[in-house]
Design brief:
The chain is an all-beta fold. It has no helices and eleven strands. Strands 2, 4, 5, 6, 9, 10 and 11 form a seven-stranded mixed β-sheet that branches.
């Protein structure tokens, strides 16, 4: 089992920044592909970003490229999502995900609200 706890969400104005954190406990964190997803009201959960176990490879959903940065600190068992130039359409609950083959774990989510 892997337990994931997100933090860092909140209310921010358009153009502002937030940094989300996801602290992991349980199995070896560094073995897992880590991803961020988000779910806006009335919409399906969507992929935002992912980072390889080593942190050397990352991918982003097109709408966040150049604004969001995913990173991880395996010594601290934590993955981050730095979000800059936030837009109202970024408003959603953000979820952390740990994946290793059929092992798939989710955090409880953290709310991000961007006011216009």
């Amino acid at each position: 089992q892997v337990q994931l706890v997100e933090s860092g969400g909140g209310l921010v104005q358009t153009g502002g920044s937030l940094r989300l954190s996801c602290a992991a406990s349980g199995r070896t964190f560094s073995n897992y592909l880590m991803r961020w997803f988000r779910q806006a009201p009335g919409k399906e959960r969507e992929f935002v970003a992912r980072i390889s176990w080593s942190g050397s490879i990352s991918h982003y959903e097109d709408s966040v490229k150049g604004r969001f940065t995913i990173s991880r600190d395996n010594a601290k068992n934590t993955v981050y999502l730095q979000m800059n130039s936030l837009k109202p359409e970024d408003t959603a609950i953000y979820f952390c995900n740990a994946n290793l083959g059929r092992d798939d774990y989710w955090g409880q989510g953290t709310q991000v609200t961007v006011s216009s």
